[in-house]
Design a protein that fits this description.
single chain, mainly alpha, Rna Polymerase Sigma Factor, Chain: A, Arc Repressor Mutant, subunit A, 2 domains, 74% helix, globular, DNA-binding, DNA binding, Sigma-70 family RNA polymerase sigma factor, transcription, sigma factor activity
Length: 186
């Protein structure tokens, strides 16, 4: 079924929207959740919660890209669950390693200005990503958005693990330099 029709089902409050979303994007959302959580049961629960959040968000939202909309919901739910599991010392996923790698490149959050600074940072990150060649941009997004392991990235790119690690290191350095040029304090 086409995404536009699935969105219409949500707007019509037709429960078939959930079944269609699950059939078309269940595997995609599960992969996002599992990469973050590494626990099948938690990943499945986050995917189930994704359909509920989508149901609550439409209307009023009418996403232009349903896959991105559902993926973002799944990712946010999974990161919330990851934080809770991490606090309980049960975490086993890729998220901490990937987020630690980026920690040295990104400014610390805090205070009243956090929202304004977050928006400016998002715009700066988008400019940085737009400046990269497609392969480097995809590598960066797969690692730091989808939280793919270095081994998965090596298999995807056909390169050795060390080559991928070095490329990611250089990308983080480039990001840090970009952010410093744009006035972000690291």
């Amino acid at each position: 079924m086409e995404d536009a029709r699935i969105v219409e089902l949500y707007w019509e409050r037709d429960e078939a929207a959930i079944a269609e979303s699950s059939a078309k994007y269940g595997g995609y959302c599960y992969q996002i959740a599992f990469r973050i959580l590494a626990l099948r049961e938690d990943a499945e629960e986050c995917v189930g919660d994704t359909w509920l959040r989508a149901w609550e968000a439409m209307p009023p939202s009418r996403p232009g890209r349903l896959d991105t909309f559902l993926g973002k919901i799944t990712r946010n739910l999974s990161l919330d669950r990851w934080r809770a599991l991490r606090a309980q010392k049960r975490w086993q996923g890729q998220a901490e390693l990937a987020l630690t790698e980026l920690g040295d490149c990104l400014p610390a959050s805090g205070g009243v200005e956090q929202e304004v600074e977050a928006a400016a940072l998002a715009e700066s990150l988008n400019r940085f990503l737009e400046s990269l060649p497609q392969e480097k941009r995809v590598l960066f997004v797969r690692r730091y958005w989808y939280l793919c392991s270095v081994e998965e990235l090596a298999a995807w790119s056909g390169r050795r693990r060390g080559t991928v690690s070095a490329a990611l290191f250089r990308l983080r350095q480039d990001l840090q330099e970009h952010l410093e040029r744009e006035g972000f304090t690291l």
